[in-house]
Amino acid sequence: KMLFGIKLFNYWFWGYICFLIFLITMINLILFGKPGSGKGTQAEFVKKKYDLIHISTGDLFRNNMSNNTDLGLLAKSYIEKGDLVPDEVTIKMLEAEVNTHPNANGFIFDGFPRTTVQAEILDQFLSTLNLSISLTIALEVDENLLIDRLISRGKDSGRADDQDRSKIQNRFNEYNNKTSPLINFYKIQNKFFKVNGVGDINDISARIFNTIDNNI
Ligand code: AMP
């Protein structure tokens, strides 16, 4: 049988169709939110439910810092002040991490991108892999509530950037100045959704799952 001059009993043809279906079913998500909004916690739930690879640039930097790698030493000076690490460094680290998972079903990016440059390069990078961002979810929590959450997290984890109010304020400023423009970047692509990040952890997950299921 022929269709548009293509033999239907042809392994290449069906292989290509399967590949297209695979690309369409891949989910690549971005989880946004100010420091302490619960990105890491919720990313773990989303990862399990949709079988995704969870990539947190904050965790990658902290791993490098605890192993005293060159990257860790470089990142430390920025992270300790609550400043963003420079784009080139962050992007290189992220691309290397994505490349270690060639067979992933999809990714959940947590804490990346945080600047317009990072978002633009992420789109370009994903397109070289025939991938794209499916949607972006922002966890919304009031800054006053976040300060309390971060201070109590800092007491448990010992994270220096969670223990000092002026560093926390600086991280909020970095978010408001450099990360919040991304809301519009993804809105104009119809890929931006807000989720109320206050309440019971399981309720917040349910809101995120609904947002994904309704918009994917
Ligand atoms: P997080 O755990 O996501 O709050 O990240 C902790 C710190 O790591 C941030 O305050 C930044 O200094 C740095 N960091 C994490 N992700 C990025 C990123 N995408 N761009 C720049 N710096 C980052």
Highlighted features:
binds adenosine monophosphate; two-stranded antiparallel ribbon; 5-stranded parallel beta sheet; 216 residues; alpha/beta; globular; single chain
The biggest sheet, with number of strands, parallel, antiparallel or mixed sense and barrel status, is: 5 strands, parallel
- Secondary-structure element sequence? EEHEHEHHHEHEHHHEH
Give the helix proportion (percent range). 55-70%
Bulk shape: globular
Q: Could you tell me the strand content as a percent range?
A: 5-15%
Question: What order do the helices and strands come in, and which of them pair?
Answer:
Elements: E1 2-3, E2 6-7, H1 11-25, E3 27-33, H2 39-50, E4 53-56, H3 57-66, H4 70-81, H5 87-99, E5 106-110, H6 116-128, E6 135-140, H7 143-157, H8 165-179, H9 181-187, E7 192-196, H10 201-215
Parallel strand pairs: 3-5, 3-6, 4-5, 6-7
Antiparallel strand pairs: 1-2
Helix pairs in contact: 2-10, 3-4, 5-6, 7-8
The protein binds adenosine monophosphate (AMP).
Adenosine monophosphate is lined by residues 35, 57-58, 61, 78-79, 82-85, 90, 111-112, 114, 118, 161, 171.
